[in-house]
Every structure is written in structure tokens, then in C-alpha cells.
Amino acid sequence: MTPLPAGVGLVPECLRDLYAELDEALTAWGEVEVAPLRHYIAYQRLVNIASVIFRPKHEAILAYLRLDPDTVELEEGFTRDMRGIGHLGTGDLEMRLASAADLEKAAPLIRRTFEAA
Question: Locate the DUF5655 domain: which residues (predicted)?
Fold first, then answer.
């Protein structure tokens, strides 16, 4: 079994496996600092590149990426433009992750976010 990432105390039991995979994806592209904060977990390089929030009632993880939503084909129930909508954390693109398949779809967006940072 993989060791649990930093900030795992914030992670609801039902989302731990999915979060471990997301954490791996967000830290796979080089040096990323993981900062567990009160309401979310921040992923930082020189600037915040992503914020992760847990929604255990919906068995989902919301990841906010520092990526221009105009450069992404938005998909109902998966990605959402958050410009002008208040939310915790950093990032204009919201991704709703509820399964390994969602994480697979998210991988190219995570990579783009990392490359742009």
C-alpha cells in the first residue's frame, strides 16, 4: 500500500484512495510543495498551481487548477469555469473527480497546469 500523502487528516475515508492518486498526479511533474490548510490542500511551485477540496457527501474531490477555462473544452459535471464565482483556494478551472476514470481525464489538464507554472 502506498504511504498516505501530506494533509491526509483532512481526507475523508471514502476519498483516500482517489486522493492518493490525485496527489501523485499533482506531484509527478517535479518539485511541488504540498500545503495542507484549514479548508483545502494547496499545491505550489512558485505560485499556487492547484487547490484540492473534499466533498464526502458527494463522494467527490474538487480540484481547482490555475488554468484558463477558455483553453479547455468544458464538460458538464466534470469541468467548470470558476471566474467570477467565489470559492476556496486558487484556480479558475474546477474539476470534479469521483472516480479513477475522472482522474484519467484530468491528467492532461494537470500536466498543462504544471507546464504553465
Answer: 13-115
Strand pairing category for 41-44 and 48-55 = antiparallel
Q: What is the pLDDT of residues 19-70, one digit of tens each?
A: 999 999 999 877 899 999 988 999 998 888 999 999 989 999 999 999 999 9
Query: Which residue pairs, CB below 8 angstroms and at least 24 apart, start in 27-36?
Result: 29/110, 29/111, 29/114, 29/115, 30/114, 32/114, 34/5, 34/6, 34/7, 35/7, 36/6, 36/7, 36/9, 36/10
Residue ranges covered by each domain of the chain: 8-116
